[in-house]
Amino acid sequence: MKSLICIQPGLFEYKEIEKPVGQKDHALLKIKRIGICGTDLHAYEGTQPYFSYPRILGHELAAEIAEVNTSTGFTIGETVTIIPYFNCGSCIACRNNKPNCCASLKVCGVHIDGGMVEYLSVPDNALVHGNNLSLDTLALTEPLAIGAHAIRRAAVNEGNFVLVIGAGPIGLAVMNFAAIAGADVIALETNEKRLNVCKNVFGYTNIINAKDGNIQEQLMEITQGNMPEIVMDATGNLNAINNAFELMAHGGKFILVGLQKEKISFSHPEFHKREATLMSSRNATRKDFEYVIDCLEKKLI
Q1: Buried (b) or exposed (e) across 21-54, using 16+ Cβ within 10 A?
Q2: Residue 147 pLDDT more than 90?
Q3: CB distance 181 to 156 below 8 Å
Q4: What one-character DSSP code corresponds to residue 125?
Q5: 171 beta partners
Q6: CB 3.0-4.6 Å disulfide test: which of 79, 147, 222, 283 passes with 174?
Q7: What is the pTM of this model?
Q8: Are strands 206-209 and 184-189 parallel, antiparallel or unpaired?
């Protein structure tokens, strides 16, 4: 079968490889759509953590089931997406119902070969019913689930001011689920085109261009002098992350959704006096995927 392999940073090659054979507790999928993620771009650039070459990329997938054990509740010919984070099921994270950060996590297309192939074998427990959503929509389920998980992890409540730094696809997903939760969304971005999308396509009125240089003043005005209770970084940019600690309210939370390789740094006194909370948000769980599917069916996204 055909495959597209990232041989090394900056180099892809098409190659013929063996079609996977049936395995116990696995389904065989015929790949129909693949989203191109920032992770894939970083792999191509050579800036992706947890990565080795050569690697077949692709984890934002829509597929048709070619082979499956029907006792799983899935049927041959059904359209599905997958939860591409394959977990061990026995480590402390898995036992605590956090398979998204399994100690031995194998992310499809990152740690192991992914979906840029004609056929892909995946564990049965990775399948997610497509519920007759379009293939294009199903391929977006995974990045949307990243946003949904981040909002659930942050425990966003109605009326919270949520500052989302970065208005790329993941940032937009975070904003969308913050809005569904009833929060007041604030978009912070350096790209004017992306800010225009936030305003004109998604209808967010609180938008700030980070290049303006008066970010704190604008945030104080938007939040009536309180600053955002929740700050979420969707850039993975070191400067953006380090500078964001001073943008949250007293008692606030800072959630790292984006990922980068370097060490972050911040003023301990400034962080401590806020009794602030710093947390990361990694991947997503089945609960998040099913919530995304439900929101898509209800046209909330």
Answers
A1: eeeeebbbbbbbbbbebbbbebbbeeebeebeee
A2: yes
A3: yes
A4: G
A5: none
A6: 147
A7: 0.94
A8: parallel
Answer whether the bond into residue 54 is a cis peptide, omega within 30°.
yes
**Closest by Cα among 239, 241, 202, 291 to 186:** 202
Q: How far is Cα 202 from Cα 164, in angstroms, rounded to an integer?
A: 14
Classified as helix, coil or strand, 81 is strand
Say how far apart CA 221 and CA 228 lie, in whole Å: 11
| CA 204 vs CA 187, 208, 241, 252, 296: distances in Å | 8, 11, 22, 22, 19
Integer Cα distance of 32 and 253 in angstroms: 39
For residue 93, the tally of other CB atoms under 10 A from its CB is 18
Assign 293 a pLDDT band (cuts: 50, 70, 90): very high
Classify 65 in phi/psi space as left (phi over 0), alpha (psi -120 to 50) or beta: beta
3-state secondary structure of 91: coil
d(CA 24, CA 294): 30
Q: What gap in Å lies between CA 107 and CA 118, rounded to an integer? A: 19
Q: What is the DSSP letter of 244?
A: H
Closest CA to 81 of 133, 117, 116: 133
DSSP at 285:
-
pLDDT over threshold 90, residue 14: yes
Specify the length of the chain in residues. 301
